[in-house]
Amino acid sequence: MKKNGFRSMKKLQVWISACRLRTLPLSISGAIVGSGAAYSIGLFNLTIFVLTILSTLSLQILSNLANDYGDGVKGTDNQNRIGPERALQSGVISPKQMKNAIAINVIICFFLVVTLIYIAFGIDKFLTSFVFIALGAIAIISAIKYTVGTSAYGYRALGDVVVFLFFGWLSVLGTYFLYSNQINFSMFLPASSIGFLSAAVLNLNNMRDFESDKLSNKHTLAGLLGLNNSRYYHLALILIAMLLMLLYFGLSSEYLLMMIGFIPLFIHMFIFYKVQTPENYDPQLKILALSTFLVALIFGTIHVLI
Question: How far apart are CA 206 and CA 204, in angstroms?
Answer without folding.
Answer: 5
